[in-house]
Amino acid sequence: MGEHEVKILGTTDQNGFCNPTLNCNILFGHLLTSAIPKETKLFTSNSFDVISDDAFMGLPHLEYLFIENNSIKSISRNTFRGLKSLIHLDLRGNTFNCDCKLKWLVEWLGSTNATVEDIYCESPPEYKKRKINSLSPKEFDCIITEFAVYESLPYQSLSVDTFSYMNDEHVVIAQPFTGKCIFLEWDHVEGSFRNYDNITGTSTVVCKPIIIETQLYVIVAQLFGGSHIYKRDIFANKFIKIQDIEILKIRKPNDIETFRIAEDWYFVVADSSKAGFTTVYKWNGNGFYSHQSLHAWYRDTDVEYLEIAGKPHLILSSSSQRPVIYQWNKGTTEFVKRLDIQDMEDVYAVKHFRVKEDVYICLTRFIGDSKEKKWGGSAFLDLQRMPSRGSMVFQPLQINSYQYAILGSDYSFTQVYYWDTEKAKFVKFQELNIQAPRSFTHVSIDKRNFLFASSFKGTTLIYKHVIVDLSA
């Protein structure tokens, strides 16, 4: 060895622990306090496979570090903390696993002033023999998400909707068996959702909020006893019924959609009875009144409002024919039938989402496969098929920059899909255990994101959207 080289052998046993016959701390300290020159090269030739945090703490003057031909697979994030004078590092001959736990090393290699000999990945297979020095942090997709159960509400439910009112986020849940619309608000102190009011009725299937000029209205659809519109009286601090919906047209409501075209507010009720009419209602300043009847006697199960090429559209799903697309006619201020969605019989519901400028729809089928389609300019084209026996909800949801689609099932686990930007399609992401789910809603409060999952046969579940950095 040269006059400035010190070789340390046998300082650790075969498991990487300090050899009991040597005091490792004293040995390293001796290197610093003895008459060894400042430019010291530290050699190790042991068989340990992990280097822990602060392994070289107490060596601020160490300049040359050689850790060659060991079995090192990973190095902790703070391994080199305290090496303030490091000039040269050699990690050759180790079997590095280049996963997210090594992302920090890639970042460190890009920022350190020390010279680092070329080192290579041994695993995973896609990185085998890749030079670690040449990797970019962008190559490590270390941020993952998941939905974790946060709270369980002890009742069955059908529809779940969220709305902003009085500078806060609220949730309204339809309880079919008690006939209630249950309103929840976030308790900022307790960090949980609490019940603050109810609307009591019979066989409630949908509680749909709509806010017009700061006034909150709730459309309550019921299977029996008619459907009604309620207004939130801020002075009395309660809901007051202000209007009944035509019982001759709305016999068996199944879904409600609210929307605004130009300066006018509307809602549309999908009627699933043999003798009912799916009907559009318009706000006239004092109440909602029938504006247009659509699709008589077709047993519509779902209605979806969306814009295609900047123009308002409705998609009606029916148990008796293919989904029908209506387009808004600006001249007559009514919807006119445009086309059917081909090759899709017995679709229970259609929900849409957007990726940049592209429009996609998720079509739910109880028997057969559900589908995802993409608007191709004149029709929706097949993109993806999902097995979906027993499904009554296929709901796309966007949480921050993450696009999901959740496919519920009455017979198996609910499947959560994640939008893969590179593949331009959904990939399987997570399974959730929910009994007979009927709707999913995203709620964002206090920089937290929650997923509400209704259950027709079990408890209503609240999941928290969790972001995990695997490189931490």
From TrEMBL:
Alphabetic keyword roster: Cytoplasm, Glycoprotein, Leucine-rich repeat, Repeat, Secreted, Signal, Synapse
Principal place of residence: cytoplasm
Q: Where in the cell is the protein located?
A: Cytoplasm; Secreted; Synapse
What's the domain of life for this entry? Eukaryota
Q: Could you name the Gene Ontology cellular component terms for this entry?
A: cytoplasm; extracellular space; synapse
User: Domain named LRRCT: which ranges?
Assistant: 94-143
Matches recorded under Gene3D superfamilies: Ribonuclease Inhibitor
User: Which InterPro entries does this chain map to?
Assistant: Cys-rich_flank_reg_C, EAR, EPTP, Leu-rich_rpt, Leu-rich_rpt_typical-subtyp, LGI_related, LRR_dom_sf
- Its name, as the record gives it, is Leucine-rich glioma-inactivated protein 1
Q: Which organism is it from?
A: Chelonia mydas
| Phylogenetic classification of the source organism | Eukaryota, Metazoa, Chordata, Craniata, Vertebrata
